[in-house]
């Protein structure tokens, strides 16, 4: 085992990187949403690459957090998982964007939990580990280049440790951090969730390294049933202590969902990704054919997000689109009903442009595209359900009703096509639609590529 802790490693790498101005270093970076999977995967791969002994990788590597320090408090689950991993002073131990000298010489990047860099043209992507749709880049420069399905990117990072070549043993704190990411992304490897065999194998392997005392603190009993030497990388899900993993998942999910104290702007930016989309020839606008699209995942039902028709929420949401220079903003809600069933909704807001005909073409393409996407199973909803205009069902009762199959059909007005639902509270400068999403397994990971196909052709 290494003679130093994960915390000491992170602090040391950050100090040395800044001392070297990044010269000769590889920067490992997760996606801009900054979720636990990105944070854990970037730290995990930075450790792995720093200790690798193979000729084509190895050397000075540091993990760069994708979010500024001011955003750390927006993700309580990240703070909790880092504390469990012994990272108690993240601003001192983790490299944040504000820490980077403007003239730093770090130009080699390793991407985890995404596979398309938006950094300047003088950067070179030397590795990719991701579980999103492959955008086809960096075949000539990235080694390894691993892009394949997994419930959690942390599982793909863990598999590198499991390979048994070119690495040192994984420290307990790092094993626990990677396991936390897998647990929250797969809901503790629950059946019917997002877990694949790579996630089950990774979790089983990591459990052999996690500190038993930290395991016991969650459930009152240890989940260690085998020692690391006895742990087979090919072991199946039956070897994993599901009780402990689910307890960990539930704890992290509870912290992730505790967002009632956050402002609308904070809710929109806490789990946010922005995309530059080049429109298809039929959708070219005065913008030169390139638009900005933002997708914010919010762990609340729209009834809670809108706060019973609050004008403050509407103003904050439109202000966010202006601040980010967006043409389209999608708010993807995810929450659990009182009967613990997964629920999802979608809110789409399109900023009107001066070119009315082109605007209509773009808006029609967007809403026809999402309406017609069978995999999402979208049902249009009226804004009156959320406290705007006619009261109707404006108290958020749809959360309870979601557990009743009959309520999925909604009211007569809900059955109208999206083009006929004109009760948007977002004013004349925006066009908005809201939907219930019956396919609760479709996340931003599926919605983002869909948008590119709809608008980019």
From TrEMBL:
Signal peptide: none annotated. Residues 249-455 form the DHHA2 domain. GO terms for molecular function: exopolyphosphatase activity; metal ion binding. Its cofactor is Mn(2+). Residues 387-423 are annotated as: Disordered. Keywords: Hydrolase, Manganese, Metal-binding. SUPFAM superfamilies: DHH phosphoesterases. GO terms for cellular component: cytoplasm. Residues 408-422 have a biased composition (Polar residues). This is DHHA2 domain-containing protein.
């Amino acid at each position: 085992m290494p003679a130093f802790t994960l915390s000491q490693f992170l602090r040391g790498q950050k100090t040395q990187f800044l001392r070297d101005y990044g010269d000769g270093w590889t920067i490992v970076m997760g996606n801009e949403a900054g979720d636990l999977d990105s944070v854990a995967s970037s730290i995990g791969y930075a450790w792995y690459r720093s200790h690798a002994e193979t000729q084509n990788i190895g050397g000075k590597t540091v993990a760069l957090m994708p979010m500024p320090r001011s955003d750390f408090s927006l993700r309580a689950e990240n703070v909790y998982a880092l504390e469990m991993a012994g990272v108690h002073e993240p601003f001192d131990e983790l490299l944040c964007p504000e820490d980077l000298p403007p003239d730093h010489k770090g130009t080699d990047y390793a991407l985890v939990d995404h596979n398309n860099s938006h950094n300047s043209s003088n950067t070179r992507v030397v590795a990719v580990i991701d579980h999103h749709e492959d955008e086809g880049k960096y075949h000539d420069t990235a080694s390894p280049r691993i892009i394949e399905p997994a419930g959690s990117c942390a599982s793909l990072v863990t598999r590198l440790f499991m390979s048994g070549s070119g690495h040192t043993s994984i420290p307990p704190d790092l094993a626990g951090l990677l396991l936390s990411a897998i647990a929250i992304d797969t809901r503790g490897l629950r059946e019917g969730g997002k877990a694949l065999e790579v996630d089950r194998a990774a979790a089983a392997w990591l459990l052999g390294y996690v500190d038993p005392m930290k395991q016991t603190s969650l459930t009152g009993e240890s989940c260690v049933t085998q020692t690391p030497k006895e742990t087979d990388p090919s072991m199946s899900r039956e070897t994993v202590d599901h009780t402990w993993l689910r307890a960990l998942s539930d704890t992290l999910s509870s912290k992730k969902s505790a967002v009632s104290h956050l402002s609308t702007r904070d809710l929109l930016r806490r789990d946010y990704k922005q995309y530059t989309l080049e429109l298809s020839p039929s959708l070219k606008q005065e913008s030169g054919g390139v638009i900005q699209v933002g997708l914010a995942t919010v762990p609340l039902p729209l009834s809670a997000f809108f706060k019973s028709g609050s004008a403050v929420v509407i103003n904050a949401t439109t202000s966010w689109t202006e601040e980010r220079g967006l043409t389209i903003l999608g708010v993807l809600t995810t929450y659990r009903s009182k009967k613990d069933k997964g629920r999802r909704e979608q809110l789409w807001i399109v900023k009107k442009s001066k070119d009315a005909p082109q605007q209509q073409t773009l808006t029609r393409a967007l809403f026809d595209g999402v309406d017609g996407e069978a995999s999402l199973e979208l049902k249009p909803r009226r804004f009156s359900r959320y406290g705007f205009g006619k009261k109707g069902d404006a108290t958020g009762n749809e959360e309870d009703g979601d557990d009743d199959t009959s309520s999925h059909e909604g009211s007569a007005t809900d059955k109208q096509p999206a083009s006929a639902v004109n009760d948007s509270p977002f004013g004349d400068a925006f066009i908005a639609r809201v939907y219930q999403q019956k396919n609760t397994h479709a996340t931003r990971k599926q919605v983002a590529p869909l948008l590119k196909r709809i608008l980019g052709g």
